[in-house]
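Human: I would love a firmer grasp of how sequence relates to backbone shape in proteins. Could you go through the record with me and say what the backbone is doing? Here is the record:
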Amino acid sequence: MALASSGITTSLVGNTLGISNRNVGGLCTSSNVNPWSKWKPIHSTVSTMTLGELKNRNYGIQIIQANNPTSLVSAIKANGNLGYKYNKPTGGSNSPYRLGDFRNYEHSAAMPLYATYKDGAVQNIGGVTSSNHASYEKPLAGIESSTPGGDTSSLAYLTKDDIYVVYGTDGSKLNLHRGALVTDGSKSYWYSGKLYWWTTQMQQFAGKTVQVYEFLTNAVSTPTSPHTGNANDRFLALPMPVASIQVKADVVAGSQKVQIIFRAQQRENNTKYYDWTLQFSAVGSTYRGGTINNIAVKLCKDNKGINQIATATGLPKSLTVNDETTSQKYTGSLYNNSTSSICWLCLWFDNQLQRSIQALMPMPDPSLP
């Protein structure tokens, strides 16, 4: 609970901060002061703090910002990997210590917004296909406090709307959204709104430890709308903007609809015949299950399915495999009526070639001479 608006004493403040110091200067500059309280000691020339003065001074919080993400990262590094500075009073007539700054002080105030990633997090990026990109798009959406109406005057703590206010070259307030830059120290890429781990650029980070720098920006950068800089671009660091995470080549949970269990073997007594079995499974965290359509197995001269020889019959046009279940097993034979001695069994569904396999050669019976 916040301190009262009157009756502030050095003992009350010291007890609230959990320190033994009772000197006004020591209290105002204590490292235990919560910078996310709206009311707190800040650098100012006034003798008595007011809400208007707090607002004019951005509540004593200087957000690290730049006109491009690369410069922002450099500024964050220079600031000890913090995205802000807390401008405390320094004493003297130009920045006096004021015990009254602790009026309405909220020691338990939470940080106004948090990053999406935390140190030590793991990001899996393996198993990307042309149809599962959504599973590899990480929304940038950490916890944040905001006020839809915009009026924060009655609050004892700071919100995003209090300290993340920036204006364009024409004087209009800019609308900010989240963004992040990912780097391994040599390569760096940034996006707004989401991190698109399926892209060729982000796939380069597989198997590496990378740093993620998160910020607010008015600029846009997506795979379909690459960023082009302009004079209005603003990049503002989050309070705790940096996380070191592991990027692994493991498959993302739920990124695959079904597991394909597909086998084929040439018939021992007539190698022109290719016997095949096919089954679908949605067992395990990688597979989410669902309906697959237009299922087809074809015998082809190549693994791209271009030169087709024969098409299997008896497969369903549509099949639903529920999560944590397995479909029935489908079997069949295809005859190679071509002169090609090497053939491929190709599987299609959802209007895409999903798998190409070569048949196993029949093994001779070792007991025969």
Notes: Residues 69-78 form the longest helix (10 residues). The CA atoms of residues 296 and 348 lie 5 Å apart. The helical segments are 10-17, 24-28, 51-56, 69-78, 160-163, 200-203. The chain has a mean pLDDT of 94.
